[in-house]
């Protein structure tokens, strides 16, 4: 803890060209000796969260790391108050479609009785229901979590796009669940600009991806609840969430509606159906006025980020397998680059789900 | 050398369930003591080359490793004879379109005066000419090598698809170049089954990719010349050779002919043009009766290879960044897998080009 704290404070003072680092280090040291931990000042927290984003090796969106809006909510420890605050996060982030990157920090793990955990993977995510014939209605990724919500007393509407409730746990208390009001969830209906092949499928996706199951570590302090959002990259929705065979698995459906022969291996039907989904999602977000970046622009933005970091004398760390988009990879500049993949701190980490 | 030799011989005898490994090891040991190296028996050479393919971490085509035809040409040391033999390799591999995986081994580096080097990257590859306006006609990858050929006295025809001559060097002798007769090079003209957007571009590609610039290492012996070929995977031609901006760079050309707005960032014009190229190459190889595998089938074949290897108790090593195809990545099974990426031997390795 002491070493990590010192390294972080020094980095902050140096990068931000602040004076008085030794005074601050003394303070921090004293707190750690007294309590085994220390409190970040609001400006440290804000800087730490931004740098955690800058250090996210798998994130292609890092050009905008400085613009992250950091909301300090360490004082909240009542589930209802936390839920209300998450609704504010959603509102501010959604911004009627002009999405803003936002992160909200709750009490760190060093205060066990107050530690906040959100049990959802993302604040907004669609439920999944196992049906009598064994098939799954909704987003297959959510099967276990949906069952958990049901066991807590939640009841879904049995559609393919039911928004799950938010499950919040403080300390060792019983988790509580809260239904998100409709007006907090911006939904984009998906249609294709030129083809009617998606009509009547009722496809839709939500506007704001808010990751809520990763922990944020800053200078040795672990924030077990620090939900954050950017805007979507096109392929996340069109090539993965709607297309993966273990998610909405829409490629065969779309291909059949396009009249393609899905039996024939060599007809590139998956590639063609995928392109249609991509066109549809891009068009639909544009029409709805919701921010979304396509993989070509995102790639250029990431390379711009790399140029700026190099200028600053910092070596970008990146995970090629995540940075390169899941389709049309070699048409993007990032495909033809390599990076070291060391994990710097501050950063976001996976944690065991609280409910497993 | 002794350790590698022993490990290889033991592996061969064990995997092939042969008797008499200690006799053979004694023999090998004696040769190494006498001459600092040893000769592979033809059966060892053949097994070694096949396993080198099986161990090629970046190759998605490994399901067929056992079927590799290995041609032992260690006795050849005359450039003309070597060239004639390479023409036989081409004939046998091309097989009128039903392509066969073939590898030809020449004299190893341990015999410096006889060491064979082919200076080409691939036996068949298209030339590149720098034009007065600075643009490049042909395959930009070949600029330096084409200039080299010209300095040796070769003259191209100044088309975008001139097949380069083969440059062969034995020991420290002057390299010699040989023009490949037209009837040895199967060429596939590229057209689209439904659209006329490629007409008059004169696109074409060759049927057989024969890698000629990697060294083959078996049991400590380095074969500096061991050209090998499989058949093409669709994306190698359509998504890389014809599409990369630093290769034939055809995406903007195709997109314009499709009437797409290439100025608009968000129109997915690269994705659409890429799909058209893929459809065209697939269709054209099919029409020409030339073996080619698409990325979906190749992915399934590779996963089948993984299953078989697991059954045999061998852990597959693979380089995810090369195994996953450069487009439609996440629609293929290999995208959702991970492998260790240790380099086993025998294997193929890069070598410094003989001419640089
Ligand atoms: C502003 C727009 C943003 C875009 C376009 C973007 C894009 C992406 C994409 C495409 C991925 C890969 C996701 C996947 O394949 O599952 C990713 C991962 C990630 N991003 Fe971003 N991102 C953005 C904002 C942010 C923000 C604000 C943060 C944190 C403050 C962040 C942190 C991360 C992290 C930690 C990962 C890895 C997630 C994991 O390992 O599961 N990103 N991002
Ligand atoms: C039979 C059909 C084959 C298919 C479809 C196939 C497919 C591929 C593909 C798609 C790549 C990546 C190429 C690139 O992105 O540049 C590759 C790489 C490779 N393959 Fe295969 N392959 C086949 C046969 C072979 C054979 C016969 C050998 C050797 C005996 C071989 C050894 C290799 C090696 C060493 C690499 C890595 C090349 C490098 O690092 O530049 N492959 N293969």
What does this structure look like?
The structure is a homodimer of 356-residue chains. Chain A has 356 residues and is an alpha+beta fold. Helix content of chain A is 35%, strand content 14%. Chain A has helices spanning 2-15, 21-35, 42-54, 79-94, 143-151, 234-241, 251-257, 269-288, 295-311, 320-323; strands spanning 69-72, 102-105, 116-118, 128-130, 136-138, 166-170, 176-178, 187-189, 204-206, 210-211, 214-218, 221-223, 228-229, 232-233, 292-293, 347-350. Chain A is globular. Chain A starts with a helix and ends in a 6-residue tail after the last strand. In chain A, 44% of the residues are buried. The model of chain A has no long low-confidence stretch (mean pLDDT 96). The interface between A and B is medium-sized, with 32 and 32 residues. One protoporphyrin IX containing FE is lined by residues 53, 56, 58-61, 64, 68, 101, 103, 228, 230-231, 233, 236, 293, 298, 322, 348 of chain A. One protoporphyrin IX containing FE (HEM) binds at residues 53, 56, 58-61, 64, 68, 101, 103, 228, 230-231, 233, 236, 293, 298, 322, 348 of chain A.
């Amino acid at each position: 803890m002491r070493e990590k704290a010192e390294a972080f404070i020094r980095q902050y003072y140096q990068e931000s060209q602040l004076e008085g680092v030794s005074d601050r280090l003394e303070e921090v040291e004293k707190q750690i000796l007294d309590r085994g931990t220390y409190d970040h000042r609001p400006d440290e927290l804000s800087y730490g969260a931004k740098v955690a984003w800058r250090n996210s090796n798998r994130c292609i969106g890092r050009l905008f790391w400085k613009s992250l809006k950091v909301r300090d909510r360490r004082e909240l420890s009542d589930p209802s108050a936390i839920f209300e605050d998450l609704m504010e996060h959603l509102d501010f982030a959604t911004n009627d479609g002009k999405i803003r990157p936002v992160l909200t920090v709750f009490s760190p793990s060093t205060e066990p009785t107050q530690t906040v955990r959100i049990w959802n993977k993302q604040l907004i995510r669609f439920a999944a229901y196992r049906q009598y014939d064994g098939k799954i209605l909704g987003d297959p990724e959510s099967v276990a979590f949906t069952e958990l919500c049901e066991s807590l007393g939640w009841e879904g509407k049995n559609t393919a796009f039911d928004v799950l409730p938010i499950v919040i746990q403080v300390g060792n208390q019983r988790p509580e669940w809260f239904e998100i009001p409709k007006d907090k969830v911006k939904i984009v209906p998906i249609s294709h600009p030129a083809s009617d092949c998606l009509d009547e499928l009722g496809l839709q996706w939500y506007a704001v991806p808010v990751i809520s199951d990763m922990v944020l570590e800053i200078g040795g302090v672990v924030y077990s609840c620090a939900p954050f959002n950017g805007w979507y990259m096109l392929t996340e929705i069109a090539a993965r969430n709607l297309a993966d065979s273990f998610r909405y698995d829409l490629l065969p459906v779309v291909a059949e509606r396009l009249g393609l022969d899905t039996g024939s291996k060599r007809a590139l039907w998956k590639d063609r159906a995928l392109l249609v989904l991509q066109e549809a999602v891009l068009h639909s977000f544009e029409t709805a006025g919701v921010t979304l970046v396509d993989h070509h622009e995102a790639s250029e933005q990431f390379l711009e980020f790399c140029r700026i970091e190099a200028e600053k004398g910092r070596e970008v760390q990146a995970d090629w397998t995540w940075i390169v988009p899941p389709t049309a990879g070699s048409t993007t500049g990032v495909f033809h680059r390599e990076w070291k993949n060391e994990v710097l701190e501050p950063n976001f980490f996976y944690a065991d789900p609280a409910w497993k």
